[in-house]
Design a protein that fits this description.
Elements lengths: L1 E4 L2 E4 L2 E4 L8 H16 L4 H11 L12 H4 L2 H14 L4 H16 L11 H10 L3 E5 L4 H11 L7 E3 L12 H9 L7 E5 L2 H10 L3 E5 L14 E3 L6 E2 L2
Parallel strand pairs: 3-4, 3-6, 4-5, 6-7, 7-8
Antiparallel strand pairs: 1-2, 1-9
Helix pairs in contact: 1-5, 2-4, 4-5
Length: about 240
């Protein structure tokens, strides 16, 4: 099946979508959670908070930086980075674990703002109706991915999910994408990756995907533009040729 993005065409059977920054607004969803994680883990200490912001990729306005840990890595990786910063700032291991547990508890009590980037439901239904297999490969945990898909109203058209807490290493490792392809007996060369981060690009290239489409930020910038085959402002620019 031919999927066109501007003048670029891909002959594919499956599309693998990232979630945060691709289908939903990354900072609307996760900047408040990042603030809770950092403040609680640091126990309010400004020096430790600054160190965590630098390590996890948060700017002075509390926004998640492109390519930063919080924007692209799995929970286990973020936890490991946080633990290392706390220990290097004089927090003992037991206290560090207690702080991170408290931080996670605070996040678990939040209502995540799942703000779609465009008419995601309508677009996904159109792509699925055309006969494409639609899947998700995200660094987020499976439970959160499925909750977000319900909020977006697209659970029925997503055939499978590869989560950050799955049995494969997180992106940029290609294991999750390859598992999705294998599940539907699709050659990885016949899948298209749509994402917004370097980890999306690397995972897709490592899997042997037919191509990678980068999703730009609201201001039109796309840090992965030099590494992808095409750039879109929203997934609505994915057109199935008939």
């Amino acid at each position: 099946m031919i999927v066109r993005v501007g003048k670029t065409a891909f002959d594919v059977d499956m599309i693998v979508f990232d979630k945060d920054g691709t289908l939903i607004d990354l900072n609307a969803a996760w900047a408040p959670a990042a603030r809770i994680w950092i403040e609680t883990s640091a126990d309010g200490d400004p020096t430790t908070m600054n160190a965590l912001e630098a390590e996890l990729g948060v700017d002075d306005d509390g926004q998640l930086l492109d390519g930063g840990s919080l924007a692209s890595e799995a929970v286990g990786q973020i936890t490991a980075r946080t633990r290392a910063v706390l220990l290097s700032n004089g927090v003992d291991e037991s206290a560090a674990e207690q702080r991170m547990k408290a931080a996670q508890a605070g996040i678990d009590q939040m209502t995540i703002d799942v703000r779609p980037l465009g008419p995601v439901r309508m677009i996904m239904e159109r792509l699925a109706h055309a006969g494409l297999i639609l899947t998700i490969a995200s660094s987020d945990n499976a439970s959160q991915i499925h909750a977000d898909l319900v909020q977006l109203g697209i659970s029925a058209v997503i055939s499978a999910v590869a989560a950050g807490d799955g049995p494969w290493p997180p992106k940029p490792h290609p294991g999750g994408i390859i598992a999705l392809a294998d599940q539907f007996e699709v050659d990885p060369h016949r899948l298209l990756m749509v994402g917004d981060s370097l980890t999306d690009v690397a995972a897709a290239r490592n899997a042997g995907a037919a191509g990678v489409v980068g999703v730009a930020r609201a201001d039109g910038t796309c840090v992965i533009a030099p590494m992808v085959d095409a750039v879109v402002r929203t997934i609505g620019e994915l057109i199935v040729a008939v």
